[in-house]
């Protein structure tokens, strides 16, 4: 019978968790700039690739120097 | 050869282009930036967007003031002696390449630990190790790669701008509660628990009380937190004896809350918590929508955002020192370098001044000043370094004094009542009348229903849809105007624009372009050889008038002069073979008669015989006379110019007959002129551009600043308009008027819903489910209607 209290409690707790997450993200300033992150996320791959190529060339030179 | 665009900045490469790394560059600056990028593995910059860069400008010594400890302290956001964080405004940020390169600054300077761009605000936040590098290094680095930060006096004086996020929180709370309360109301909607006798769901019957009190608990934060603004505003309105629209709204919220609470307390019914939370949510949504701001534009700039933080002061012993602008005292000797702004009124002490007052007046042709002449704050030195003795402190200078006028201290938005509030009064009275009449009727026939009907009327008449009509229409209009490069400060500006009956224009820079001027020749015709010699002589000079004239003259063969001499402040002399030419002021070329023309003129004498003169005219914007023609049908027009009457005849030809023209207007005169018009009951639109219009722009009902480049600063105003859209100005005014019509139509629409709702309310049959359907339905249809209509309107606009 009283299972409905449990269900209600759970549903409200879940809802409040999401609500808290929202408040937290607003407080963090995530809603202050809604444009730049959308552009920034497109860079990520290229950036990693470049770093890798840089590291690679560094490694290449270091290997050569080791030899 | 086909012209190739510069690999870095995209400008056409002239004949002097530089080939480097198989790429073409227009100048050394661009090439250097490319070199920096390619050496530091940042050439991905060019893959993201081609020709994204901008040419770096020469910056020798410009940022020396950043070595001063106190200035650094004030500019940085965080400073613990080791780590410093600074937020810099970079007007040039415009594309994804910019974001990418600015966020990878640590590749160029390893002591920068992180940098983050806010694209819409055009700022970059840089954290760096202040032990290893300095703010000056960071700023110089940015300038070297073409992203020069803009640092002005405002950055130091400006109080900490706090981001106000309360509306988002409130919207979040209301949305969260609205959703949950809707779910909790479901049993009621489907009548599952209507009564024990009808054999409703036993299970839900059992827990009805729990559901209801949960809804009550949820609604508390909505009423007392999210909706609190409405109560405050209604209270303020009532205290100043104004029935604004927030009065019926707060009345509706309160009645909804009290009645619902009573209902569940005494088990009369399930209450209207869903309508209550929904109402607040929709209202806040409207507010949120209206709050569109152009974060990259500022409508509140005063002279501080034009002025530098520090200038170079020359001490008695001849040493140079950076000093803060505020600390300049009368008698200080200041060094103003080429391209720097003169921060105070002063006397020219040393050097030749060529001062560009375009910030102040919009006039782009520099003025020449010599030793002992007075120079005014706000001018930009264009010709080598000068030394100036300060006559006043910054805040007492001619230009800056304007800001002590009270017009800059009052908040403009409080000076008028918006359309929603103005119908609020009639609406409130109407609703209260209906409520009391209906209650009286029921008291007579069936007193048990009277209270029910009274509250039901107040609930259903709550002007949710009315309160939404204006924010959605105007908010949408604001966006449409924004797409057309007409940026208004807030929705109030559209309402005001729809009401204006007088339009006042500044001349220079507003109806004339500041980029180019034209010149006409008066006098004896020049022979082909003379013209050719003239052009070749001009070619050698860097004086702005020479450059303009050079561009105007038709092409001739370029040859080397035998002799060339530039007499500063007087004119030019050149000779080729036996021909000799003198170009310059009338005294210089040896003309006896006194000049009667007020316009700038350049005189020409060939072989010591006076030939004639080139008279410079303002170049008017395209379509000026059409715009004035159209506007003169509906509006009173006038021109207020700070210049002399030299252009009077030209203007009279261009503008509709009898347009009043006022010349020699000082900034205070312009302000006073607007005030006197307003005292006659006129609603004034002021269109201007320079800082000297700032007072008039602030005083007028609507002040619009015309700007050739919206990223460059314009004075405090209600709207910023891209100069290319000047021809559309009248269309925009008409569109604002139409937008107001749309609002009035949607008021009618929402009143229709109110009438339907009132029928249920007055007859005492208002069920929670009817309220729950009617309220969102009316809101959504009003929002849909206004959005559709404004988009149709926007399509017609150019």
TrEMBL record, chain A:
Record key words, sorted: Membrane, Transmembrane, Transmembrane helix
Protein name: Cbb3-type cytochrome oxidase assembly protein CcoS
Membrane recorded as keyword: yes
Organism: Maribacter flavus
Pfam families, per the entry: FixS
Membrane spanning stretches: 6-26
Keyword Transmembrane: yes
Automatic annotation (TrEMBL), chain B:
GO-annotated cellular components: plasma membrane
Transmembrane segment boundaries: 167-190, 210-231, 243-262, 268-289, 427-445, 451-474, 742-762, 768-793
GO biological process: copper ion homeostasis
GO MF entries: ATP binding; ATP hydrolysis activity; copper ion binding; P-type divalent copper transporter activity
Localization (cell): Cell membrane
P-type ATPase A domain residues: 308-404
Major subcellular site: membrane
Record's keyword terms, sorted: ATP-binding, Cell membrane, Ion transport, Magnesium, Membrane, Metal-binding, Nucleotide-binding, Phosphoprotein, Translocase, Transmembrane, Transmembrane helix, Transport
Boundaries of every Putative metal-binding domain copy: 6-68
Gene3D superfamilies linked: 3.30.70.100, Calcium-transporting ATPase, cytoplasmic domain N, Calcium-transporting ATPase, cytoplasmic transduction domain A, HAD superfamily/HAD-like
Topological category with respect to the lipid bilayer: Multi-pass membrane protein
Pfam families named in the record: ATPase-cat_bd, E1-E2_ATPase, Hydrolase
Homology family: Belongs to the cation transport ATPase (P-type) (TC 3.A.3) family. Type IB subfamily.
Protein name (database record): Heavy metal translocating P-type ATPase
Native organism: Maribacter flavus
């Amino acid at each position: 019978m009283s299972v409905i209290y449990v269900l209600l409690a759970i549903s409200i707790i879940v809802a409040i968790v999401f609500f808290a997450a929202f408040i937290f993200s607003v407080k963090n300033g995530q809603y202050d700039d809604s444009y730049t992150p959308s552009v920034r996320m497109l860079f990520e791959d290229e950036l990693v690739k470049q770093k890798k190529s840089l590291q690679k060339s560094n490694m290449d030179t270091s290997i050569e120097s080791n030899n | 050869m086909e012209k190739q665009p510069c690999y870095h900045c995209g400008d056409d490469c002239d004949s002097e282009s530089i080939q480097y790394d198989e790429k073409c560059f227009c100048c050394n600056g661009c090439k250097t930036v490319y070199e920096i990028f390619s050496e530091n593995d940042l050439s991905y910059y060019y893959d993201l967007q081609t020709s994204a860069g901008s040419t770096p400008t020469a910056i020798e010594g410009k940022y020396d003031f950043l070595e001063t400890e106190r200035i650094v302290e004030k500019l940085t956001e965080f400073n613990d002696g080791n780590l410093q964080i600074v937020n810099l405004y970079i007007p040039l940020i415009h594309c994804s390449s910019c974001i990418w390169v600015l966020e990878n600054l640590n590749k160029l300077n390893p002591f920068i630990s992180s940098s983050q761009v806010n694209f819409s605000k055009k700022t970059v936040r840089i954290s760096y190790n202040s032990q290893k590098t300095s703010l000056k290094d960071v700023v110089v680095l940015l300038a070297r790669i073409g992203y020069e930060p803009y640092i002005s006096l405002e950055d130091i004086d400006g109080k900490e701008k706090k981001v106000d996020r309360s509306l988002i929180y409130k919207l979040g709370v209301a949305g969260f509660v609205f959703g949950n309360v809707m779910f909790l109301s479901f049993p009621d909607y489907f009548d599952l628990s209507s009564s024990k006798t009808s054999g409703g769901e036993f299970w839900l019957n059992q827990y009805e009380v729990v559901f209801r009190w949960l809804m009550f608990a949820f609604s508390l934060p909505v009423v007392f937190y999210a909706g609190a603004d409405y109560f405050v505003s209604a209270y303020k309105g009532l205290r100043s004896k104004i029935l604004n629209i927030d009065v019926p709204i707060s009345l509706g919220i309160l009645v909804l809350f009290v009645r619902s609470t009573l209902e569940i307390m005494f088990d009369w019914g399930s209450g209207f918590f869903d309508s209550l939370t929904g109402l607040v949510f929709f209202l806040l949504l409207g507010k949120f929508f209206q709050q569109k701001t152009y974060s990259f534009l500022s409508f509140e700039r005063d002279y501080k955002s034009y002025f530098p933080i520090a200038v170079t002061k020359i001490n008695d012993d001849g040493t140079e020192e950076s000093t803060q602008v505020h600390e300049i005292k009368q008698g200080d000797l200041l060094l103003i370098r080429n391209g720097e702004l003169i921060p105070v009124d002063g006397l020219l002490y040393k050097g030749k001044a060529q001062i560009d007052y375009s910030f102040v007046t919009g006039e782009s042709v520099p003025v020449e000043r010599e030793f002992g002449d007075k120079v005014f704050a706000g001018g930009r030195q264009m010709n080598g370094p000068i030394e100036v003795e300060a006559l006043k402190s910054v805040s007492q200078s001619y230009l800056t004094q304007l800001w002590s006028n009270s017009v800059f201290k009052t908040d403009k938005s409080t000076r008028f009542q918006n359309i929603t509030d103005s119908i609020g009064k009639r609406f409130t009275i109407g609703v209260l009348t209906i409520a009391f009449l209906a209650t009286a009727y029921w008291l007579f026939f069936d007193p048990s229903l009277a209270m029910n009907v009274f509250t039901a009327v107040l609930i259903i008449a709550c002007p949710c849809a009315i309160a939404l009509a204006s924010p959605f229409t105007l908010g949408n209009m604001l966006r449409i105007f924004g797409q057309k490069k007409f940026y208004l400060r807030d929705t109030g500006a559209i309402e005001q624009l729809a009401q204006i009956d007088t339009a006042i224009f500044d001349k220079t820079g507003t109806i004339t372009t500041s980029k180019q001027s034209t010149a006409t020749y008066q006098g004896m015709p020049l022979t082909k050889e003379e013209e050719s010699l003239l052009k070749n002589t001009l070619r050698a000079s860097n004086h702005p008038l020479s450059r303009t004239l050079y561009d105007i003259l038709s092409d001739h063969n370029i040859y080397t002069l035998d002799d060339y001499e530039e007499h500063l402040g007087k004119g030019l002399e050149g000779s080729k073979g036996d021909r000799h030419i003198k170009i310059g002021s009338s005294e210089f070329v040896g003309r006896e008669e006194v000049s009667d023309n007020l316009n700038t003129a350049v005189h020409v004498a060939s072989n010591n015989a006076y030939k004639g003169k080139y008279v410079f005219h303002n170049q008017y914007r395209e379509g000026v006379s059409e715009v004035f023609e159209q506007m003169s049908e509906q509006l009173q027009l006038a021109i207020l110019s700070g210049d002399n009457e030299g252009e009077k005849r030209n203007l009279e030809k261009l503008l509709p007959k009898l347009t009043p023209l006022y010349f020699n207007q000082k900034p205070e005169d312009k302000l006073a002129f607007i005030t006197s018009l307003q005292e006659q009951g006129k609603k004034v639109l002021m269109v201007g551009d320079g800082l000297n219009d700032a007072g008039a722009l602030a005083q007028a009902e609507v002040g619009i600043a015309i700007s050739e480049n919206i990223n460059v600063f314009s004075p405090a105003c209600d709207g910023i308009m891209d100069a290319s859209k000047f021809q559309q100005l009248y269309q925009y005014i008409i569109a604002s008027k139409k937008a107001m019509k749309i609002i009035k139509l949607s008021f009618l629409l929402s009143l229709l819903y109110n009438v339907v709702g009132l029928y249920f309310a007055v007859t005492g049959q208002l069920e929670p489910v009817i309220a729950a359907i009617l309220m969102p339905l009316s809101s959504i249809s009003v929002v849909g209607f206004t959005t559709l209509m404004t988009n149709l309107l926007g399509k017609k606009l150019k």
